[in-house]
Amino acid sequence: MFDLRYHVASLAAVFLALVIGILVGVGISDPVDNAKTGLLEREVASLQKQLDQQVQQTGTVAREQDAARSFINQTYPALVRNRLRGKHVAVVYVGSPNGPIPSAVNRTLINAGGQQLRLRVIKVPVDAQQIDKMVAAHPDVGHFTGPGRLEALGRALGAELALGGDTPLWKVFTDALVEQQAGGTKDPADGVIIVRTAKPQQDGTSRFLQGLYSGLGSAGVPAVGVEASDSRPSAVPIYRQAGLSSVDDIDTPAGRLSLALLLAGAPSGQYGLKQSADDFLPALQGIAPSGG
After folding, report:
1. What one-character-per-residue DSSP string does 134-175 give?
2. pTM
3. Which of 190, 169, 178, 166 is nearest to 117 (CA)?
4. Could you report the per-residue pLDDT of 38-63, keeping only the tens digit for each?
């Protein structure tokens, strides 16, 4: 996402480099080429004018952004009301639910009139040897072998979790993979929220999670990865790679509105305040509240 502040910083750096170039050039020239110096001085003056204009525009943009945030904060209750009326949403945590995100997710569902259909908290890292033994002991659930077995298993589990039904894989692997759970498995989800609270994982666990995210996003319902505006490192690149939408400022009213809009059917994409975002908010146009 384009940010005018970075353009101003780049322009300032160019300006500084040009000034240094003039000083060095003047210092080593003998005699000084007055025509060339005059040309450089005019370039400096032109660049200084552009820099001044960009700084002024940056101040205007900052005020506009502050006004937009203030507007969303004040109108959030009305904008989000009934967006998810009648929607049943599955919530998946990778790592223990902690920090401000669980509260923000719950507030979004409550404010928008949605309901949590089921909750699954995935414990990481995954014990690959234990998983392989369980696969060998239950050949009826599928053949997950070879280098890509963990990613394939994760993808199948993700699809099962979103689609519901008999979920034979979750019946086998819940004890090995789930730290906490709530809600049944039968009903299909109308949307999925994914939250990574654990640190980035490596090796087999990383491949399993990539498959899980992809599977959650393959069920034909909105699937959104969320994080707080101060989350570091960001999980947005991972969500994007898996084909998920994302909200990187779920701890703000704008972030909660973005999540509600995405779950209600707004165009998929990356939204929020970070440089990885495509835009601040999904488009409101065409995404009408379900009622009220």
Report:
1. HHHH-GGG----STTHHHHHHHHHHHHHHH-SS-HHHHHHHH
2. 0.78
3. 190
4. 665 566 567 667 766 766 666 665 67
